[in-house]
């Protein structure tokens, strides 16, 4: 982040607007994602409802990604106010760590979702006219399963960091009774130095994300085997017995 010498009283209008719009888009996409996974799919009508819910979820994810990128660009050029209690080093470090994890989750969730959508095309399109697949991402079931596993892992990190973020805001509002929450709601607060990136918190968050990616890739399921794979390369039905099973060389077909 750029260095600045002027003090800050609170977050400006643009920063507050980006914060709350991003929060609304993320919560809406996450809530719809949890809801759609519980929808029944026993009839054509129910399957159509699942299809629409997935399309809406993916579209909300793209909207959230656009807002997050715009907010990131703004934040890099306009740092907000620093902590009200810089002497509380542990509390400040934990707040920085949660913010870094949140930034990672806000970017990772829509990106991995879009990568999964690109690698597993044909179901529930994104509701926009600009194409469905990302460049250089071809249809690949194994890659799609990896992106889906990463997407789910990122969602759990988001839920945990978001819960801690909300608890921290409530702690400042109800226990400390300071202006931490007011700075993001009204823009008012005491003058403090501009915020600076927490280096060690960023390093720890990066390590956490690296471990999450490594574990997710290791735990990603393998593609289901093709039940008709044994038929590939057969020129006729001469090598198939009466039950539709291929006959191994040197064996007699079942009668």
Automatic annotation (TrEMBL):
Q: Which cofactor does it need?
A: heme b
Q: Does the keyword Cytoplasm apply?
A: no
The UniProt keywords, alphabetically, are: Cell membrane, Electron transport, Heme, Iron, Membrane, Metal-binding, Transmembrane, Transmembrane helix, Transport
Q: State where it is primarily located.
A: membrane
TM stretches of this protein: 17-37, 49-72, 93-115, 156-174
Q: Which Pfam families match?
A: Ni_hydr_CYTB
The record's section on InterPro entries has:
Cyt_b561_bac/Ni-Hgenase (IPR011577), Cytochrome_b561_oxidase (IPR052168), Di-haem_cyt_TM (IPR016174)
Q: Give start and end of each Cytochrome b561 bacterial/Ni-hydrogenase domain.
A: 11-187
Q: Say yes or no: keyword Electron transport present.
A: yes
Bilayer topology: Multi-pass membrane protein
Where is it located? Cell membrane
Q: Which domain of life is it from?
A: Bacteria
The family line of this record is: Belongs to the cytochrome b561 family.
Q: Output this protein's name.
A: Cytochrome b/b6 domain-containing protein
> Which species expresses this protein natively?
Defluviimonas salinarum
